[in-house]
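Subgroup meeting minutes
Present: P.N., E.W., G.H.
Scribe: E.W.

1. P.N. recapped why we're keeping a running log of single-chain structure predictions: easier to compare across weeks, and new members can see raw inputs and outputs side by side.
2. G.H. added today's entry (326 aa).
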Amino acid sequence: MTNYALGSARREATLHTWRKGRLTLQELRMTNIINPLKEKVTLICHSSFIIRHSSFVILLTFLSSPASAQSEFSRPVIHATTIGLGANHQLDTYLSPLDYHGPQLQLMHETQRTTHLLDSAVIFQTLWQGNLSYTKNASAKARYMGGDVTFDAAWHYRFFTPVDRLRLFVGPQIGANVGVLYNTRNGNNPAQALASADLAISAAAAYDFRIWRQPLLLRYQLDIPLLGVMFSPNYGQSYYELFTLGNTDHNVCFTHPGNAFSNRHLFSIDVPLHGFTLRASYLCDIRQSHVNEIKHHSCTHAFLLGWVRYFQVVHPRRSTPPDFVL
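Output recorded in log:
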């Protein structure tokens, strides 16, 4: 048995004896276990104070803590929900050779949590993104109504840099997207189904600073798909042939930056206000593909506004470094 295990067993046995009334408080102090107990109680009380009064302080504490620091906290979690409006440019030559422009409604929900990988230096991120668009061509005689949902999961490894308060993150990301695009004017093929999955590289940078006495957190993330698959009807193939007659024709296509170069840029700034943390974001989402002689292009610029919630649950039996970083 290790010295740590022996020490823990002795402390538990001594505490048990004290609870039974066989030791006085003075005798308990002489056993040298009061200090660890004080540290644990202080840590728990300090965490409770932060959670109740300034959850943003938790994030800044994580930003400045070294990876080797140990505490009695379990894994912290961050939830961010934003909603916004933007402009969307669409092209789908299966439905129409013309460009369509119009507004788009965006909804995003992001979750981040520490993991036990590589000494807790890896942060797991999930990102849900949904949008609804209503666009029209230049003559306004035809319109697209579209919507899709995207889910991404990334594992970011944290790098500390010589620049104070600046952190960098790089890691793999997997994602999937499903949706539909409907043309109000077409008769034969009025809709296009959207479905894809990919493996991407994801990189991010976070920097916390102050303007006057106001703490702020600035963050930028870039995601670029590298390999994937997508569904696409072939050139001139109808959905009736595909799904009713069962005439498939290279409808699952392999994608890479050569035929489907896409990227997503996400800028955000977190501002702690009285009782909550505000997040303002700018999204540039470019998705494009050229498979089966069909071009699909969707470019979105949107501004989003929402809130951030930070959670850190005390769990004395689990020891995890409090170095969670956005």
